[in-house]
Design brief:
The protein is mainly alpha-helical and 148 residues long. It has eight helices and three strands. Strands 1-2-3 form a three-stranded parallel beta sheet. Helix 4 packs parallel to helix 6 and helix 6 packs across helix 8.
């Protein structure tokens, strides 16, 4: 896992830039960024994972940028796709490519706009728990909470 690699002194390189790269390729819309491409265009996300792996990434992130149910509803980009469906697809894509090399999969816990509206710590924690439960049902190596 990640801790073993770090404790052994290994330099661990992560990936990044999915949203920008997928926008440039025509798979996501600017504005209200949402990761529906993991379900609607899995081949594009899979290909980008492979490019990061070939470039030397040791960690592949699940492509779920801003994937909370409240953000999906707010964006208007996604109809008939749930956050859980996106999380599941994103986990499967990252794991499939990670297994081609010696890479780890980071389940990305993403921000939610609900706090700005409700200021409810309870609601925010419930949204985070739902995301994390989705990941725990999949084969991830660790959580990454860095897009805040």
């Amino acid at each position: 896992g990640i801790l073993e690699r770090l404790n052994a002194g290994e330099v661990v390189v992560g990936d990044g830039g999915y949203v920008i790269q997928l926008e440039r390729r025509g798979y996501v819309k600017g504005g209200h960024w949402t990761p529906e491409a993991a379900v609607e265009h899995p081949e594009a996300v899979w290909q980008l994972h492979r490019e990061f792996l070939r470039a030397g990434a040791n960690v592949l992130q699940t492509f779920i940028f801003y994937c909370s149910e409240d953000k999906l509803e707010l964006s208007g980009n996604v109809i008939n796709i749930t956050g859980s469906q996106i999380n599941d697809a994103a986990c499967d894509l990252a794991r499939e490519v990670a297994n081609e090399g010696d890479a780890l999969v980071a389940g990305v816990v993403c921000q939610t706009p609900c706090y700005l509206k409700t200021h409810s710590e309870t609601e925010v924690k419930a949204i985070f728990k739902k995301q994390m439960d989705d990941f725990l049902n999949k084969d991830i190596d660790f959580f990454y909470c860095g897009v805040f």
